[in-house]
Amino acid sequence: MLPAPIPANDAERLRVLRELLILDTPPEERFDRIVSFAAEEFDMPIVLISLIDAQRQWFKARVGLDACETSREVSFCGHAILQPELFEVLDAALDPRFADNPLVTGAPFIRFYIGAPLALPGGATIGTLCLIDTKPRHFDMLDRAIFGTLRDLVVAEVIGQGEKAGAE
Amino acid sequence: MNAATPHGRLLLVEPQFVLRRTVSTMAREMGLADVQEATSPAIAERLLFERRYDALLIAIDDEGEALELLRRLRAGEASHPADVLVAATASACDVELALKLKQLDVCRLLLKPFKVKGMLEVISALGAPEPLSEH
Predict the structure, then answer these.
(1) How does DSSP assign B28-94, residue by residue?
(2) Residue-wise over A116-129: b if at least 16 C-beta within 10 A, else e?
């Protein structure tokens, strides 16, 4: 297993994350509705808004998973925050980075993963919106575009520019 | 995905925020339409008064407000050309609703559970052949 790498800017990234005062806060409908929507839209059993803290990933919103956090080391999202694009693992059981990951060999038995980095306007990537399935999946271009739009909705909510902006 | 040139102006009347915003954003980015959002038939009627649209995609609510708006629109009581293309979404459809929608000249009905892809297909099918006139 390849442990989630620590980005060079992690201290600054963590500072931004903690200034948001979002870690360990109660569930909020504005985030819950996005993960619920994503689960239905993509027929995904697990959807998470994962925030990458120093030693853990903590879930601000979740569908299909009882745990509210896991260690950062085993997290897929810890990998996803390293790149600006979507991070996709088509079949974790066949991927040497993840095949012996305890989240693959045990519950929740991840096979497919796709994570959209939550990059804030200042540049810090605080976590991901991610989709997980227990079987290999394929995401086409339109799926990816829709997923990216949902990610943008999460970022808008995080920075306080959510539903109140744009609609009548 | 880069934004493309939209084909026409569409009014999307949908109360659910995540669905509404995702569909409108995607439709704009794909160049399917210049989408304006309304959260309710009442707000939609005000927008119809203020601007002219090529098409309307409206969620049929249980209270009958959407059907009343469509009735007023088709009757020429909504300060908007009555012949605008209309498609609808609904949680269910019985014979009574189907007949009403037919009378109101609703050209497409999308029943739940539907996906963003399905709504984009409807918007694409509604695509006006010519850009909006200057109104």
Answers:
(1) HHTTS-EEEEESSHHHHHHHHHHS--SEEEEEPPTTSHHHHHHHHHHTT-SSS-TT-EEEEEES---
(2) bbbbeeeebbbbbb
Closest by CA position to B41, among listed B17, B18, B19, B72: B72
ipTM for the predicted complex: 0.90
User: Which pair of structure tokens corresponds to residue B93?
Assistant: 């459809």
A39 in reach of chain B (CB within 8 A): no
Cβ contact (<8 Å) for A41 and B116?
yes
Mean pLDDT over residues A117-136, rounded? 97
Nearest residue on chain A to B35, judged by CA atoms? A167
Interface touch A33/B18, C-beta < 8 Å: yes
| Phi, psi angles (nearest 5°) of residue B66 | -65, -45
Query: Model's pTM, two decimal places?
Result: 0.91
- Cβ contact A167–B20 (<8 Å): yes
